[in-house]
Amino acid sequence: MRGAFACQRLRLKLWRRCALLFLLCWAAGWLVGSSFLFLVHRSVFSERCTDEGSHRILARLCLDYSKGVLTGDLCEDLCVAPKLVYKQCLYYDRGKKVIQADWEGQPVILKSKKGIFSSYQPLRLLHEVETQELPEAELLMMVALEVKNVLGLELSNNTMGPLWTRQKGIHWKAQVASMWSLLQQEEYIYFSLLQDFSKHVLRVIGSCGHFYAVEYLIAGHAWHKTIFPLEDTVGPSFTNTKSKVKAITDIALSFLDMVNHFDNDFSHRLHLCDIKPENFAIRNDLTVVAIDVDMAFFEPKMRDILEQNCTGDEDCNFFDCFSKCDLRIKKCGAERANNNLQVICDKIFRHWFSPSLRGPTISFPLQLQLQKAVHECAKPGPTDLKHQKTSLNSLSELYHLLQASQRELQKADG
C-alpha cells in the first residue's frame, strides 16, 4: 500500500514537471512566433525611410516633370537649377513621405501622401479634351466637390484662390493634373485654405507635382522636459530656469489662442483628433503651429465619423475624439463628448503644470492654482450646455492664471 502511494506521488510530481515544461515551451514558442509576425508585419506594411529611397522618389518626380506629365512652381528649382536640394529623409508614416530639403539656404519640408505621381487618381476629364477650352467654372466646381468630399465643407468658387491658380499655356494639362493630385491630400487642402486666415498652421511655400513644400519647424517631443526644444527653436538664451518658465507660459497661452481660434473663427469648428507633442511645433515668436493635421476634421465631417453603430461607449472612440453610445438605438452620438481644450490639458499642459515641475520662479499659490485648473480642464464630461459652459470657464480661468504668471515673471525681471 505504501509502495502504491509512493508511486502515485512520483507520477504526480512527474506530471507537474511535464506540465511546467509544456507551459515554458508554449510561452517560448509564442514569443518567437509573435516576434516573427511583428517582423513580417513591419516588413510588409511599413517602409523604411532611407536616403536611397528618397532620392529614387525625387528622381522619378523630376523624370515625370521632364516628360511634361506634372509641373509646379518649385519643379525648376528642384529638377533643373538646382536651388531646392535634398537633405535627408525624415519619416515615412501611414504612407506619407516627409523629406527635408534646403531651398536657397533655408530648410523646408517636402510632403506627399504617395511617392509616385501615377498612384493618385487621375482627373478623367483631362483625357476627354484636347484643347485648353476647358470651362473654368466646370473645373472650379470639381475642385469644390473634391473639397466637400475630403473636408465635408461646401465652399463657393470665389474662395478657391489658394487651391486653384490655373495658367494657360502648353503645360496646362500637367498643371491641372498636378493640382488634382494635391487636392487628394487632406493636409495640403487644410494648409492652403487656412494659411491666409490662421497663424496656427504651416505655411505652404510651393509645389512640384504631388509634392508640396511647407516651412521647416522642429516638432515637439513628449520626452523633452519643455516639450519643445527651446534652445534649437528660439535660441541659446533660453537655458536658465526663468527663461524656460516664461517661454512655457507664452507657449501655453498660444495653445489657448489656437483652441479659441479653431473653435470660433471658421464657419465650422475644427476638431483635432490626434493631439500629441509631435504634431505641433513653435515658431521663433513662440506661436504654436499644427504641423500634422491628418486627423483634423471640421464639424460636418466629425459628425459623420462619430455617428456609427455601437454596443458601448468604447465603440464611439476615434483617436482623441469620442462621443457616447445611445444604447436604445445602438448608435454613437454625432456630437463630440470631449473637446480640443480637454485633450491639450491632458496631454500637454499636465506635463508642464504638475507638482514634480514646481520651481521658485512663480509663487507657490499660483502654481497650485494652475495645477488645479489644468486637472479640472482635463476631465471629460457629458455633452450638454452645462459642460460647454464649464469648458469656456476652464479656458477663461487658464488665460487668467497664465497671464498672472506672465506678470509675476515680468515683475521679477524688473
- Spell out the helices and strands N to C: HHHEEEHHHEEHHEEEEHEEEEHHH
Percent in helix: 40-55%
Number of strands: 13
**Structural shape:** globular
Provide the low-confidence segments as ranges. 30-46
Mean pLDDT: 84
Could you tell me how far the N terminus lies from the C terminus, measured between alpha carbons in angstroms? 96 Å
Structural class: alpha+beta
Q: Give, in spatial order, the strands making up the sheet with the most strands.
A: 1-2-3-5-4
Computed over alpha carbons, the radius of gyration is 27 Å
Approximate strand percentage: 5-15%
Number of helices: 12
Main sheet properties: 5 strands, antiparallel
Structure description:
- The chain is α+β, with helices and mostly antiparallel strands and 414 residues long.
- The protein contains twelve helices and 13 strands.
- The strands form five sheets. The protein has a five-stranded antiparallel sheet with strand order 1-2-3-5-4, sandwiched between helices.
- A hairpin with a 4-residue loop joins strand 12 and strand 13.
- Helix 8 packs antiparallel against helix 10.
- About 4% of the residues have low confidence.
Keyword list:
414 residues; alpha+beta; 47% helix; 13% strand; globular
In short:
With about 425 residues, this protein is α+β, with helices and mostly antiparallel strands. The chain has 12 helices and 13 strands. The longest helix has about 45 residues.
Present the secondary structure layout.
Blueprint: H1 2-45, H2 51-66, H3 75-79, E1 84-93, E2 96-103, E3 106-112, H4 136-151, H5 172-183, H6 186-194, E4 204-208, E5 211-215, H7 230-233, H8 241-264, E6 270-272, E7 280-282, E8 288-290, E9 296-298, H9 299-306, E10 317-318, E11 321-322, E12 325-326, E13 331-332, H10 340-352, H11 364-377, H12 385-413
Antiparallel strand pairs: 1-2, 2-3, 3-5, 4-5, 6-9, 7-8, 10-11, 12-13
